Amino acid sequence: MKKAFVLVVLFIFPLVAYLFFASGINNFGRLPILTEKIPNVSELDSKVNLDDKITILGFLGSDIERKKGNAFNLNQKIYKRFSDFNDFQIVMVVPEGTEEKVKSLKDELGTLSDVEKWNFAYGSKEEIKTFFQGLKTNVSLDENLGTTYVFIIDKDRNLRGRNDDEDEGVMYGFNTTSVAELNNKMEDDVKIILAEYRLALKKNNANRSK
Predict the structure, then answer these.
(1) Is 60 exceeded by the pLDDT of residue 58?
(2) Dist. CA 208–CA 195, nearest whole Å
(3) Cβ-proximal residues to 184 (8 Å cutoff; 6+ apart), any chain
(4) Which tens digit of pLDDT belongs to each residue from 156-187?
(5) Domain boundaries, the chain
(6) What is the tens place of the pLDDT at every residue in 127-136?
(7) Burial, 47: exposed, middle or buried (Cβ in 10 Å; 0-12, 13-18, 19+)?
(8) For 29, which of 25, 67, 129, 142 could close a Cys bridge (C-beta 3.0–4.6 Å)?
(9) Radius of gyration in angstroms for the set of CA atoms belonging to the chain, rounded to a whole number
(10) What superfamily would CATH give domain 32-208?
(11) What is the C-alpha separation between 147 and 38, in angstroms, rounded?
């Protein structure tokens, strides 16, 4: 009897728990919209676009060397996990004149992963400030036009986040300085939004086949 109980605890319960939470994410999870229709980054840089993409949006600022650790954290914990999805991208907004610093960063990131879906949008100081204000978050840019926070933007350019986070209440972005936050919160939220789009695609395909 004891052996059977131990087997249930060790094998059956974890499986049931996994199926429960997976079902919760796939069937009921939906990441709240915190800001509707943010501006398109193409207004700064026509080579980069947010439409029809699931985007991790960040602001590296001009002092890119000091943000390299944050970029590496994001690359290892989020980008490498989700870069195989066709509609996924990372967009970093940077000031004009930082092209060489960006090239150096991409070269270093390229030694760790394929950086094809790392995109950089260049803008003037005022353009970046105006664009950032359009996100309507509780986060501020520093004096170099950067922040350690990144934001999840859906295909319709809505900023997604948490409105009932256990630590912060409303959570607009994720601090790339914290590996724990990327692992325990951001990864889950990216999974939810990807599952949301997968379900919508399956539903559309099912309706067409009727």
Answers:
(1) yes
(2) 20
(3) none
(4) 999 999 999 999 999 999 999 999 999 999 99
(5) 1-30, 32-208
(6) 999 999 999 9
(7) exposed
(8) 25
(9) 19
(10) Glutaredoxin (3.40.30.10)
(11) 18
